[in-house]
Amino acid sequence: MIRRFDHVFALWDGFPVSEGHALIVPYRHVPTWFDASPDERAALFGAIDAVCAEVDARLPATGFNFGINVGQSAGQTVPHLHLHVIPRRAGDVPDPRGGVRYVIPEKANYLAAENRPPNILRAREPRILETLLTTGGDNPLLIQLERDLSDARSLDVAVAFVMPSGVERLYPHFEDLLERGGGLRLLTGDYLDVSDPNALQRLVDLRALYGEEKCQLRVFESKGKSFHPKAYVVSHVGGRGAAYVGSSNLSASALVDGIEWNYRILSSRDADGWQQVSDAFAVGHDHPHGAPAAHRPPPRIDLDERAGTERLGHQPGMSTVASGSSSSLSTSKVTGSSPSSVFATGSVTVMLLPPHW
Questions:
Q1: Peptide bond into 126 cis (omega under 30)
Q2: CA-CA 20 to 30 A from 249: which of 21, 27, 178, 243?
């Protein structure tokens, strides 16, 4: 109990949104605002100043939100009228604009929506129906992910590999998130050397722009063991979140038109499930086999001169492209195919690629 008043009393919330979250409650059992008497309604708001003073004495606040939930559709879970006094403090969320408007998250921060750069990808309109499973094609992961990222405060990504096409699809969202003060953590792996160096370098450049504290990139050194996680974990203000776990790596095909199944876990529906995914990412991110992503030099080229022909050595998951004469060979890493062979004799280059190239 904080304090007693005429018709109402104040107490600390048992599940506080912030330190000092208080409730003002009528003595009489009153289900909703519309069931309260004029005196009870006046007493609820008349007690606000005194309760705020008690909150400030406990831990000073720089702002407050006041609110009443009326009915199940408005979020009321306790069938007894009460008024929330929620203290706010500078920095408690990346972008506080919108305040109580976050009862409808997509429409909360209209100022941010007006000021965002025009190249930010938006969920297509009309909005697709809420779905817990994306399957690609007409129901791609990207649209749902865009929707959740629009007001995210952090994003955790764990994928087996990254490709330039996937990075480019989400890059505007990464920039938007970091520009708003949010955080990005991305974990990928070196299993079979599938991740594209150009994609990794693009992410390293992003980290250089926003700093390692806000943009954390790590590579899991598999040491011969498989590494195949595919998860996207989004956190919002107020402790809400959404996670996608399934088959999509960070590539355009996996995000848009490929046949990829990803299950969406909402903290509002399955708080334990969402927390397990979030905790699993933290374990992987902090695993001793992980290391900060860094620019890597091109793969080594082994020359084996036989009968006037030079052959380039190969590593799993790598196709080598050669151009020019035998004295000027260059390589670039290509994913999604079995190893190919390149032979160069004089100024002629022959590249053998798999049929599905």
A1: yes
A2: 178
**3-4 vs 152-159, strand pairing mode:** unpaired
Query: With bands split at pLDDT 50, 70 and 90, how would you rate the model's confidence at 104?
Result: confident
Please check the confidence at residue 342 and state whether its pLDDT lies above 70: no
Residues catalogued as catalytic = 82
Domains 3-92 and 110-292 share a fold: no
Q: Say what the alpha-carbon torsion angle 179, 181, 187, 193 is, to the nearest 10 degrees.
A: 20
- Residue 338's pLDDT band (boundaries 50, 70, 90)? very low
| CATH 3.30.390.50, applies to 3-92 | no
Residue 180 tokens read as 């708003």
CA angle (207 as vertex; 205, 210 as ends), nearest 5: 115
User: How would you classify the pairing of strands 3-4 and 22-26?
Assistant: unpaired
- Phi first, then psi, for residue 262 (nearest 5°) are -140, 130
**Contact at 8 Å (CB) between 181 and 91?**
no
Write out the two tokens for 122: 């938006």
DSSP 261: -
State how far the Cα of 245 lies from the Cα of 265, in Å rounded to an integer: 8
Element (H, E) at 153: strand 152-159
Tens of pLDDT, residue by residue over 29-57, are: 999 999 999 999 999 999 999 999 999 99
Q: What is the pTM of this model?
A: 0.52
Lay out the sheet containing 133-134: strands in order across: 133-134, 262-266, 241-246, 230-236, 152-159, 183-189, 215-220, 290-292
Instruction: Give the DSSP letter of residue 42.
Output: H
How many other CB atoms sit within 10 Å of the CB of residue 35?
14
The DSSP bridge partners found for residue 186 are 157, 217
Domain boundaries, the chain: 3-92, 110-292, 297-357
Contact between 90 and 150 under an 8 Å Cβ cutoff? The reply is no
Class of domain 110-292: alpha beta
pLDDT band, very low/low/confident/very high, at 120 (cuts 50, 70, 90)? very low
